[in-house]
What does this fold into?
Amino acid sequence: PRYPEASGRKLIVLITGFFTFTILLVLFAGKEFFDFRVKSGVDFKEVIKIKLLGEIPTKGGIPEPMFYSQMQILYGQIEPFLSDKERPIIAFGRDIARSGTSFLITELGELLTTQNKKILWIDTLSELSEPSLGNNINQCLYKGEAVSVDRFEVVRDNLHKTYFFLDDITYKSVLEKGRVEAFFQQLHGYDIIFWELFAAQENMQLLATIISKTDILIFIARFRHSSRSNLQNAVQYLKQNSNTPIFGKRRPPHLFS
It folds into this structure.
């Protein structure tokens, strides 16, 4: 050949490109394999072992009629588990902050209040804030005091809000299931109750006690943030200590509420 060195250089380039591509492919596959965060519906089915109800729809990202249509589909998925309940109690769980639970509750509340449903939203706080001063249910749950409905915050017509505070007592004292049931029985003026719960790992036994007296639990997982193992452990523990149906819902990466 007239230019043997050129052919050699081409071969070296091809070999270098092949090995570079192979290394990058192995690194990418390894990164995905050792990434234990929630990424797809397979995580819910194969690892966490609960039914996924889809993603939280993004308000503003799709036409408004389609958004509310998807919210109706979500409620339609869980409604069969609530149809025979006099006052359905829906709990919303998570494993990390900013999972979209408040957004989901707000939008479901707006959807259901248009049907003249009176809703109580119980929000869980790790520290007291101005709205929760004098408006929390801790004394009702731990000391058996009567519920003061007149202190509940009015978010809008037919949607009221109260708070559960994770103070030292919630960690040092065991909440009795009978107290939780007695508390719910005093809320006869409401058609539906939403309880936005704390991260599961904060107090697993307290979570199980509350869940045991609710009608359904929806675990919200944050895409590429929530831990599959944390959710799996929480679901296994709750299934062992409660008969409440558990479902999953995924928060997309572009939802910031």
About this structure: DSSP finds nine helices and eight strands in the chain. The two ends are 68 Å apart (CA to CA). The mean pLDDT is 85.
